[in-house]
Design a protein that fits this description.
single chain, 98 residues, mainly alpha, DUF1232 domain-containing protein, transmembrane helix, transmembrane, membrane
Amino acid sequence: MEAALKRIIALWRTVAGQDLRLLWYAVRHEHRPGWLVPALAGLALFAAEPLNVAVPVLGTIDEFVLLPLILHGIATMLPAHVVDGYARAYDKRSRRRA
């Protein structure tokens, strides 16, 4: 069971981490969509809801299934110019490291 949990956490970190980096860039972008900040605030409230503490099984499902899906959904709704800007910035950063 522990090995499966470690694999789930690694997968979550990989998939959600990419979306989190994109969303962090989008929040700081000068032409971000107006719905982005309220959507992320609602997602933060959803992640911190009391149900996670009261019913641990549902909290685990929230953390490992629903949150990454919602994060990815928000990331896919971003306008193309924001995603392109992120791709250019990320490309420049990876070139500097090499």
